[in-house]
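Re-run with default settings, no changes from the original entry. Doing this only to confirm the output is reproducible before filing.
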Amino acid sequence: MSTKDEILSRIRKNTGRRYEMPDLSLEAITYEDKVASFSEILKAMGGEAVVLEKGEDVNEVIRHAFPKAKRIGSTLPEITCATFNPDDVDDPRELNGTDLSVVRGSFGVVENGAVWLPRETRYKAVYFISDALVILLDRNQLVNNMNEAYQQLACMEYDYGVFMSGPSKTADIEQALVFGAHGPMRVVVILM
């Protein structure tokens, strides 16, 4: 018996009362206007949502939102404002000093403003090391809640993924909120 099996066996042996799994078929929260609600909730999380209008160039929107960004990384072929491809570096530490990374999200979750980011780059550091992160997201790929999100994940194949909801943040005992403590200081989701 492996150590894991032994530990689980001991837990089962010493568990007094067992409880049935909760009924997950209960109706969860839904949103009438997913785009507006997602944008509002993402803003509350410290992020920004931009709805790309028909005919707008995503590169111009990115440049307008980040006029001072000089080192822009992206593996996406449509991102022509990128100055380098992060997959071309030999060591993820070379990504340090990136002003902006542009990635694609698979789907967004309205209830918490999160976007599922499966690893589609050589290094997952791309999602965390840059000062700012732009996530391109199909506005038709918004789900209402985490129940629907996990149903989506059950149908996907990925080796690594993360839900990101706004920029990284932390607060101390004095209730001072700091953005960008352990990830991007600014997150913008462009709904296409």
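The longest strand covers residues 132-137. The chain has a mean pLDDT of 90.
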